[in-house]
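Thread: Modeling a multi-component assembly for a lab meeting

Hi all, long-time lurker, first post. My supervisor asked me to bring a structural picture of a complex we are working on to next week's group meeting, and I have zero experience with this. I have the sequence lines for every component (257 residues in total). Could someone generate the structure of the whole assembly? Inputs are pasted exactly as I received them:
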Amino acid sequence: MKQEIFMYFIGTAGSGKSTLTASMQQWCTDRALDAIIVNLDPGAENLPYDPDVDIRDWISLREVMETNKLGPNGAQIACADMIALNTEDVKQSINSFKADYILLDTPGQLELFVFREAGKYTVKFLSPEKSVLCYLLDPLLSKSASGFVSQLLLAITTNFRLNQPQINILSKADLLSKKQQALIQRWSLDTEEIYEALCSEEATLHREMSEQLLTLIKDLGGYTKLIAISQKDFSGIEDLYTTIQQQFEGGEDLLKD
Ligand SMILES: Nc1nc2c(ncn2[C@@H]2O[C@H](COP(=O)(O)OP(=O)(O)OP(=O)(O)O)[C@@H](O)[C@H]2O)c(=O)[nH]1
Ligand SMILES: [Mg+2]
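Re: Modeling a multi-component assembly
Sure thing. I ran the full set together rather than chain by chain. Output:
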């Protein structure tokens, strides 16, 4: 019996989605775990992997630009909407692999997948049972308290829109020192420390808003353990795998075979 766990890699532009998708597949292959990659980014140009299922087989950004006389941004939006028209074919193609792990790389700009109806529809249609959103926080934005809080709010918005279990990842952790990583990990769990950091970073004008935002994040369960991953040296990927196995407890841990 195949597990069929769908892992969606989502994050702001350049946060490391495609690289993590590739690293996760490599990590799985090294352990004889069966993982395929689905590229859902119609505008992708140079991918660090060879996709098993590729939305570009059905939708071409260049063609949409030329046929509809659209600029790159308008065409990206049109393409994002067109993904929904091809979900049946994409699903059939995914099913033909009968893989345990389906790694889905999402479009560069988060808003194309998270804010447009087509993204929500695609997640629901492809994998109503076992889906997990792997939300990547950009390491450089996470260094400042206000940047970190803004990203947590985006992570919550993603969860609100797509309504699936979610794991927050501190991406490209090798770009941060151990000290910076430890601080960000504390911010992700402790309202007091992040509040202090916000107050010392921002003008007092922001104090009230900071308090309100932090309360909101807390009430919505937005403080969770972050999994620090470096796509380059694979550190943290085992932690991600274990967390996903726990998420779908009852499912077989294929590494234990
Ligand atoms: N140092 C470091 N760089 C990384 C890591 N992962 C990715 N990068 C680099 O970050 C840049 C963006 O990585 P991508 O994987 O293309 O990010 P993305 O989110 O797919 O980007 P878009 O799809 O264009 O939005 C590339 O130059 C990668 O080589 C990492 O773990 N460490
Ligand atoms: Mg990408």
